Every structure is written in C-alpha cells, then in structure tokens.
Amino acid sequence: MCGRKRIKVAIDTGAQCSVMSAKTANLIGVGSVQKSPIKRLVTYSGDKILVKGRAFVDCVIRGETFRISFQVVDKDCATILDGDSAVKAKLITRIQQVTADRAEDSTYGFGELKEYIYDADVIENPQFVKHPPRKIPHRSRDTVKTELDKMVQLGVIEPCLEPTEAVSPLVIVRRNGKIRICIDLTDVNKNLKRREFPLNSLEEIAARLAGSKVFTLLDCTKGFWQIPLSKRTSRLCTFSTPWGRYSCKRLPFGLATAPELFQQIMTQMLGDLSGVEISMDDILIHAKDEKTHFGHTSMLKIIQHMRPGYSINLIKKRERRSPTT
C-alpha cells in the first residue's frame, strides 16, 4: 500500500530511480510534489520524459512502512520501483557472488557478440544532421576526456577522422556524483527503420509467472555494448566532442532500434528455455519450487545456450526473491 491506496508496483532492478505518474500520485493522496534534481528521464528506447517533481511516499509492505522517493511524471505509466528501493523494502536480496558450482564456465566482464554485426536499416532519402560539439564546463573536462579514453580502450568507441553523414552531440549526464557519457541520437533515429520485434510487457510476463514461487534475476553486463556495429552504422553513430569526433563501435544507448534488436538476440539465444522470461537485458528465471528452480538456474545450462554462434558475458548480479503481495 502506498499512501492511502493499494496499488500495483513493478520492480525494475535496472531502473535508476522509482517512478509514478502524476495521476497515480493524486490517487494515493500525494499533495504538492517537491522540486526534483532530475529534470527528465530517458527510457530504453531513447524517449525523454519530463519530471514534474519528486514525492516521498510512505509504502506499507508486508506490514512494515518504508519511505520511498518517487519521480513523478506527467505521462501515464506503470509505477516502477527501482532495485535499491526494492532492496530497502526487503522485496529482493542482492547476491553479489554466484557460487562456484554455478559459475565455473562463465567469464566476467563484458564480451562481444560473435558472428553478428548490426547494420542499421535506413529510410529512403535520409536527412542526417551534423552537430558541432557542445561546450563542456571546465571543471568536468578532464573527467569527460578520461571517460572517453576509457571507452576507446574498451573498444566501445574510436576516434573518427574521415567525413561522416551524421554527427550527433555529446551529452553529459551527472548522476550520484558521477559523469555518464551519452549521445543525443534524435536526428539519426528519424532516419532509421525499426525491425518491430515485440517487447515483452510486464503484464505478459506476470501472466506466465502464475504458480511460480522462486525467482532468480540475471542481467547482461553492458548489454548493448556487446553488440558490434557495421562500419556504415558506426559512422552514422558519430558524435562530436571538443577533442574531435568519435564513432561508436558497439550499439549505443539512445539508438531507437536498440531495444528491439537486443530483445530479438536474447530471445534467439534463450527463448526456448523452460522457466525463463526475457525483457531485453533482464533475464527472469522462475519455478514453482526450489528443486525445479535449481535445474533452470544452472549457470552452465544458461551459458551453453548463449554459446552456439555467440560469445557474450552474462552475469552482473544475481537476485532471489519470493512472491510478494
């Protein structure tokens, strides 16, 4: 129960914050919202949602009250509880290590999808835009340049000296005192064709969980960055900085086609496994009891299904939880 009403809340361990719509906030009796340090949210598909404000809501979960901070938005959406808040509310437990007998064949870090290169589908008569570099505050320049150098070293981006059709602006996002490198690919997205692979909705996944009592949640390490780009697509994903232009060598966040592409790849690899639900880079394994669950969650079994034609590093965190009301 949140505020004065009982509402449905979805747990998203990959979310950076908890979110509810202004309509829901009014329903549960939230008065005026406070000013939020977050101005807008960016979804997996690159859509930007303006934040109306922040609300601290007293939520009663299993008879215990927890005060949770929600970002309130003017868009109709499901109420989302981020991973940290779910841990605080004792809905999930983070297990930072996977036991040796379940991880003997895994490689940690971030990998690269083999035998696959993403080549973007471009509309006829595209109209790309070349943006000049945006100014970066002097106090942040060294940190941003260090992060760019790190991404070059990891093979995520590379310096670009040749002419390109598109040049997108670099966007610096500060979160929890850290700087994150983002690219505003809005103008590139206008010229791309989407492959329209269906994304699993929370309602569809919830329906298939009927009868399950034990759950494990896995997510891919730097999931999008594990997908290499073709040379042409790499050049379309070029961005400008004060130190020159860089091109993405791996699938960047903010590309409109990225969520459906990643869902398609994960479904091809793991979609035939029993008791496994896939939502982009989140993998939910569920079963009616512990014995069946341990069969489903064999790390060797998961990795074997990742291997045919692929090489991708999987585990970043592992979580277990029982059903909640």
Automatic annotation (TrEMBL):
Alphabetized Gene3D superfamilies for the sequence: 3.30.70.270, Acid Proteases, HIV Type 1 Reverse Transcriptase, subunit A, domain 1
Top-level taxon of the source organism: Eukaryota
Domain Reverse transcriptase: residue ranges: 176-300
Any matching Pfam family: RVT_1
Transmembrane feature ranges: none
CDD domains on file: RT_LTR (cd01647)
InterPro entries with a match to the protein in the record: DNA/RNA_pol_sf, Peptidase_aspartic_dom_sf, Retrovirus_Pol_polyprotein, Rev_trsase/Diguanyl_cyclase, RT_dom
A single GO BP: DNA biosynthetic process
Record's protein name: Reverse transcriptase domain-containing protein
Source organism: Phlebotomus papatasi (Sandfly)
